[in-house]
Amino acid sequence: MEFKQLVEAAEKWCTGNPFDLIFAEENDERRLDFYAEPGVSFYVLCPGETDSFHVWSESEDCLPFLQLAQDYISSCGKKTLLEVLEKVFTSFRPLLGLPDIDDDSFEPYHADMEGEPGPDHQQMGVSQQ
Fold first, then answer.
1. CA–CA separation, 18 vs 88, rounded Å?
2. Quick one: which of 5, 26, 104, 125 has the fewest CB in 10 Å?
3. How many domains does the structure of the chain reveal?
4. Is 36 part of any domain?
5. Does residue 10 belong to any structural domain of this protein?
6. What is the pLDDT of residues 47-86, one digit of tens each?
7. What is the 3-state secondary structure (H, E, C) of 64-124?
8. Is the residue at 19 inside a domain?
9. Within 13 Å, how many C-alpha atoms sit on residue 128's CB side?
10. Distance from C-alpha of 25 to C-alpha of 27, rounded to nearest angstrom
11. Where are the annotated segments for Disordered (predicted)?
12. Using CB atoms within 10 A of its CB, is residue 6 exposed (0-12), middle (13-18) or buried (19+)?
């Protein structure tokens, strides 16, 4: 993908979240820099012909949160810029003060291992007569 198209995709992505594209450079490296309050920053190195995406941050506070995105990028299959940016956004949700989306997806499951099964639950292998 041409760098201009990557920049346009990044700008469009920024309209739906707190990040701003603050710098785009194609000369030395195909790099896109992003920033959001309160001091959350990262950059993406975009692939040339054969490389894959790479995400990093100059901020020591942000680096640990990028591990999920880095693992995702290094997993099998080619990734798009938008897929990478979404994974970074998910990784940074706690730093941005946003709820973790995984917490809202599932209701907590509490197994009562010591108690008797309730009236709605049958014990497997035991016939109740």
1. 12
2. 125
3. 1
4. yes
5. yes
6. 885 578 999 999 999 999 999 899 999 998 889 999 999 9
7. HHHHHHHHHHHCCCCCCHHHHHHHHHHHHCCCCCCCCHHHHHCCCCCCCCCCCCCCCCCCC
8. yes
9. 7
10. 6
11. 106-129
12. buried
| Three-state secondary-structure class, residue 7 | helix
What's the sign of the alpha-carbon dihedral 3, 33, 68, 84?
negative
Q: With 0.90 as the threshold, say if the pTM is over it.
A: no
Note whether residue 67 is domain-resident: yes
Give tens-digit pLDDT for 75-125.
Answer: 988 899 999 999 999 999 999 999 877 544 444 444 444 555 555 555 555
**Domain span at residue 58?**
3-96
Q: Do 92 and 62 meet the contact criterion of CB atoms below 8 Å apart?
A: yes
